[in-house]
Design goal:
Distance between the termini: 43 Å
Pfam families: Amidohydro_3 (PF07969)
InterPro entries: Amidohydro_3, Metal-dep_hydrolase_composite, Metal_Hydrolase
Protein name: Amidohydrolase family protein
Number of domains: 3
Strand content: 15-25%
CATH topology of the largest domain: TIM Barrel
Number of strands: 22
Helix content: 25-40%
Strand order of the largest sheet: 3-2-1-4-20-21-22
Organism: Kitasatospora herbaricolor
Length: 542
């Protein structure tokens, strides 16, 4: 029997933890699966008249990179329609960008933006300065952590917020000294009251934004991502893209189980399992046990300098325990957002009580600051640690003169994003970007993980340099580890017979390059199930 496709490169690299001498240069693919790996003998055994031969002289073939934590649908729509405030460090700079956008849109229309750095507000985030500069304009700006909004008084009035709104979880409409909403809206339930008033984006437009973003991700080496959400219009968007074409990569979706929800909601999420299309499917459930340290809604054992960051997002932690047990008993793996040390500890305790689902291990996501005693528990319990090291490098500073570090204090800040320590304690670490909260180019994320500073800012001091990891460890955390986290170790994450032909073709072997060189290592092609997508070499995606 002949192969459908044969790929020949200079080297096949699997990022094995203890590599031996390997000379593999050829991979044969049939019906989307790898059927042989080796040298010229693979060509002789598997090539036929109908076999496509794909050659990349000098290149390295690796398992396809998988971003273990991203939000592709709402992220692509937000980025495609909103105002990008990334990189702006002063309120005047924010004003200038808003003014430019207002000059382009109709009077009275909503202005929405994203990636707002809360550090631009000297006395804490509030929307009232927006009214002084842009009177009567409804403005809503999503903060960099995507867990809060800063909205103008005109937006407060248009929505009808009073400050008397109550929520099942720790969401909040923050009040000013006068007892009225000050424009700071914290956590998802409260944010939903604002987002519901955003201008509707037609489905074809939304699908276009998502499809384009997935193609950009593919051009940076991704063949898959784990979408830690499945809110509307996710299903409609994926189906619309596949109605006329293909997703550029595979997407594994885990719907959010809202904080303090009950069995009726849990049953609905359980019923979504297995929904899917050609390159996307629903598997697993996402929990948010706490919020974010930057806005005071994370759950630490001790409060921060403002007396905040001391409560769970689930007011009823016993309910969280029951929900994890519910999904585990139905064979559905969970991923718990846990940023503060007490949130991580509680999630580990609950997983220890409940055990794992049969289909895949439970995961804990973010793990921004934890003490020493929690490190060995990940490996002991078989819990996957989902980390975003680029949050450390791009959202905090080595001198701790940033909001995150200031709020939680120097001792806890020094225990941030402990990638090296978790690996040394035997944990499986799956690296993600949290895009659009973080940088989406996996090459930059992987380089940052090795440098503990932004790869594109060589003069920046590293954040906790002792947490650096090697190139081999970093790339394994975006290939082998996500496969394990998805319960797909026999199908994804390695180049071996029986595995899916999800592959990345790099111009050069990342293991032979410095982190700086890795970040601009051209991706020549990606393969998803043996289907080839060639890419024009470029240094970095937006």
């Amino acid at each position: 029997m002949n192969a459908d496709l044969i790929v020949r490169v200079a080297r096949v690299e699997n990022f094995d933890p203890a590599p031996g001498p390997r000379t593999d240069t050829v991979v044969a693919v049939q019906d989307g699966d790898i059927v042989a790996v080796g040298g010229q003998e693979v060509v002789r055994s598997w090539a036929g008249a109908a076999t496509d031969l794909l050659e990349f002289p000098g290149a390295t073939l690796t398992p396809g990179l998988t971003d273990a934590h991203a939000h592709p649908v709402w992220g692509a729509i937000e980025v495609g329609t909103g105002l990008d405030l990334g990189g702006l460090t002063t309120l005047d700079a924010v004003y200038a960008r808003i003014a430019d956008r207002l000059a382009e849109q109709a009077p009275g229309a909503w202005l929405t933006g994203f990636d707002l750095d809360v550090n631009v507000f000297e006395a804490g985030p509030t929307g009232r300065p927006l009214e002084q500069r842009f009177p009567g304009v409804p403005i809503s700006l999503m903060t960099r952590d995507a867990h809060s909004l800063v909205i103008s008084p005109a937006a407060v009035d248009r929505i009808g917020l009073t400050g008397a709104e109550t929520f099942d979880d720790a969401s909040e409409i923050v009040l000013g000294p006068d007892g009225r909403p000050n424009g700071f809206v914290v956590e998802l339930r409260a944010m939903d009251l604002v987002l519901a008033h955003y201008p509707e984006v037609p489905l074809p437009v939304a699908a276009g934004h998502v499809a384009a973003r997935l193609r950009e991700f593919a051009a940076t080496g991704l063949t898959g991502l784990h979408a830690l959400d499945f809110a509307a219009p996710s299903e409609e968007v994926y189906r619309e893209i596949e109605r006329t074409g293909e997703l550029a990569l595979r997407v594994r979706c885990s719907p959010l189980v809202p904080a303090d929800s009950g069995p009726e909601v849990w049953e609905a999420v359980a019923a979504q399992q297995g929904i899917g299309g050609r390159r996307w499917h629903v598997a697993g459930a996402k929990f948010m046990l706490d919020g974010t340290a930057d806005n005071g809604s994370a759950w630490f054992e001790h409060p921060d300098v403002l007396g905040q960051n001391r409560r769970p997002l689930w007011k009823d932690v016993a309910g969280y325990r029951q929900a994890v047990r519910f999904f585990t008993g139905r064979g559905i793996p969970t991923a718990t957002h846990a940023i503060g040390d007490q949130a991580v500890r509680t999630a580990l305790d609950v997983i220890e009580e409940c055990g794992h689902a049969g289909s895949a291990p439970h995961r804990i996501e973010h793990i921004e600051s934890i003490p020493d005693d929690l490190l060995p528990r990940f490996a002991a319990l078989g819990v996957v640690a989902g980390l975003q090291p680029a949050h450390a490098t791009r959202m905090t500073r080595a001198d701790q003169r940033d909001n995150w570090s200031h709020r939680i204090g120097p001792r806890r800040a020094a225990h941030g994003w402990r990638t090296r320590d978790l690996l040394d304690h035997g944990a499986v670490v799956a690296i993600g970007s949290d895009w659009p909260v973080g940088v989406g180019d996996p090459r930059a994320v992987l380089a940052d993980s090795q440098l503990r500073r932004p790869v594109d800012r060589p003069s920046t001091a590293p954040v906790q340099p002792g947490q650096r990891i090697s190139a081999r460890e970093a790339y394994a955390a975006m290939t082998r580890a996500p496969a394990l986290a998805a319960g797909a170790t026999g199908r994804l994450g390695r180049i071996a017979p029986g595995h899916l032909a999800d592959l990345t073709v790099f111009a050069r072997n990342p293991l032979d390059l410095t982190p700086e060189q890795q970040a601009v290592n051209p991706v020549l092609a990606t393969l998803v199930g043996g289907s080839v997508l060639r890419h024009s070499p470029r240094e970095r995606a937006s």
